């Protein structure tokens, strides 16, 4: 029997993106300029219509000047992340 990991919380990921953008007072256009990503890509990410790639989230981490773990860590909300002491 195969045991599958819990589903990632993509809704928490998009909320994290929105919170970071709003906390800085940035528009989608401004974040696009800072990240090198298309405005439409950012809108789709924040509205949950796209998941993005590692490259996308890497660019966003640099634009926000935060560790990528701060962005992607929300994927594990509601369950214990792999490799943690509680796992």
UniProtKB/TrEMBL annotation:
* Annotated HTH cro/C1-type domain residues: 17-71
Recorded hits in CDD domains, A to Z, give: HTH_XRE (cd00093)
Pfam families this protein is in?
HTH_31
Protein name, entry field: Helix-turn-helix transcriptional regulator
